């Protein structure tokens, strides 16, 4: 069943999403992104590269890895410092394009 939104707009481009982030987080500040995908260096590198590109960093943000019990998948938790709610939404949009992404939190 396809995911449907009541306002039929992309939540990553809505003013409501920015308002909610601003109401629940302090910017600038640390924000946690979690991506789950195949347990391969290519996937991990792509996630880190996506965050670096959007935030215009020349270094990897703090991150941690947690492999699944069988070792086929990995969860990467990335905690960069972001300046604005728009930055958070832009990172999410970029992460959605990473090959192999299974889940994004």
Please give a handful of descriptors for the protein shown.
105 residues, alpha+beta, Alpha-Beta Plaits, four-stranded antiparallel beta sheet, two-stranded antiparallel ribbon, 3 helices, 34% helix, YbeD-like_sf, UPF0250_YbeD-like, DUF493 domain-containing protein
Task: Describe what is shown at a glance.
Pfam families: DUF493. This is DUF493 domain-containing protein. With 105 residues, the chain is α+β, with helices and mostly antiparallel strands.
Task: Explain the overall architecture.
- This is DUF493 domain-containing protein.
- InterPro entries: UPF0250_YbeD-like, YbeD-like_sf.
- It comes from Schlesneria paludicola.
- It holds the Pfam family DUF493.
- The chain is of the alpha+beta class.
- The protein has a single domain (11-104), classed as 2-Layer Sandwich (Alpha-Beta Plaits).
- 34% of the residues lie in helices and 22% in strands.
- It contains 3 helices and 6 strands, in the order αββαβββαβ.
- The chain has helices at residues 15-24, 41-55, 85-95, and strands at 29-30, 33-38, 63-67, 73-78, 81-82, 103-104.
- The strands form 2 sheets. The protein has a 4-stranded antiparallel beta sheet with strand order 3-4-2-6, with helices on one face. A two-stranded antiparallel ribbon has the order 1-5.
- Strand 3 and strand 4 form a beta hairpin.
